[in-house]
Amino acid sequence: MLRTVLVFLFCFILNVPLSFSQEKPLRIGIAGLTHTHVHWILGREDLGDVEVVGMVEPNRDLAQRYANQYGYSMDLVYYTLDEMIAATQPEAVTAFGTIYNHLEVVETCAPKGIHVMVEKPMAVSLDHAKKMAALAQKHNIHLLTNYETTWYPTNHKAKELLDQGKVGDLRKVIVRDGHRGPAKLGINQEFLDWLFDPVENGGGAIMDFGCYGANLMTWLRNGERPNTVTAVTQQLQAENNPKVDDDATIILTYDDAQAILEPSWNWPMGRKDMEIYGLTGALYADNRNTLRIRMAKGYDGYDEETMVLKERPAPHNDPFSVLEAVVRNKIQLPPNNLYSIENNLVVMEILDAARKSAKKGKTITLKK
Questions:
Q1: Where are any strands of DSSP class E within 32-121?
Q2: Residues 335 and 307 in one domain
Q3: Residue ranges of the GFO/IDH/MocA-like oxidoreductase domain (predicted)?
Q4: 80: left (phi over 0), alpha (psi -120 to 50) or beta
């Protein structure tokens, strides 16, 4: 009998600290529901790390449609960000409205000490991005920019191999991103209304998909700015995209390398892939999980290895898990990481220069 009691007490003592050490989920507010990437968090499995405590969406019809789809209460939906913050006290806010609205979200959240994650690109312009960065620094908040390609194991493995010298010194990178066009994908009208707006989105395909390549190349170069930016844009689907470009090619030059970014709403199928060429070989991140390594052999021969990669370990396999881990100081992201303010300020400088280059028909040299 005494032994049984002692065992019970031992187990109880062991379990008490565990129960007290369990953290409450990170309280997250959602600013806007019009960006369809919001399905990422609304349809996310409950991992116990984050809790959506409120949403901001003045379009009640849209909010109700998603409520019916995901089963949340309309009591969570507020008309304004200030109203939602006052009522729910979120620790972080994720922005899923227009790109133009990202600045306003940071202007509202930063002075209150609320961390922010925005969807790519960081802003509609370098000017907006600089204001966001200054607010984040002044009020000591985390400001992250989320890209789908951040979660691709192939991109991280490719950078690892490049940094190890697997294919020799970097000389050229080609990044292709896009799909056959938003109007052809059956995207809801609330998203299309601003995706095709040059003010609210900052442009068309050049912004929507050009940011991916700029983000990745800046990361591969460890934060280095290019020397020049040259861009050409076209409107190949005027009937679908009357106000913005739908195809672009952006060339970035560095002292010893070049990048070609090909964002488009005219691909026959969706794609997000990257090719990295060194002096002795090449890396092909064909998609999220398939990576090919080609090592040069003779004049035009090569040996090829194909790797099928598993998903990255938690929390690096999910944007909201990373947000929670960063805010709670569980992880510290390396300098110039894909989410970082530093990287995304360079991205916005590239995109601003690309739009200027396409408009003026000449190469833009960035100031050193």
A1: 50-56, 77-78, 92-95, 115-119
A2: yes
A3: 157-283
A4: beta
Separation of CA 233 from chain center: 23
Q: How confident is the model at residue 106 (pLDDT cuts 50, 70, 90)?
A: very high
Do 22 and 119 fall within a single domain?
Answer: yes
Q: Are residues 117 and 178 in the same domain?
A: no
Strand 290-297 and strand 281-285: the pairing is: antiparallel
User: What confidence tier does 368 reach under pLDDT thresholds 50, 70, 90?
Assistant: confident
Q: What is the pLDDT of residue 11?
A: 43
How far is Cα 304 from Cα 291, in angstroms, rounded to an integer? 10
Amino acid at 362: K
- Amino acid, res. 219: W
Same structural domain for residues 304 and 260?
yes
* pLDDT, tens only, 320-354: 999 999 999 999 999 999 999 999 999 999 999 99
Give the range of the structural domain holding residue 116, as residue numbers without chain letter.
15-148
Sheet containing strand 364-365, strands side by side? 301-308, 290-297, 281-285, 271-278, 170-178, 258-264, 247-253, 228-234, 364-365
Are 138 and 160 in a shared domain? Answer: no
Total tally of structural domains belonging to the chain: 2
Same domain, 252 and 160: yes
CB atoms closer than 10 angstroms to residue 192 = 17
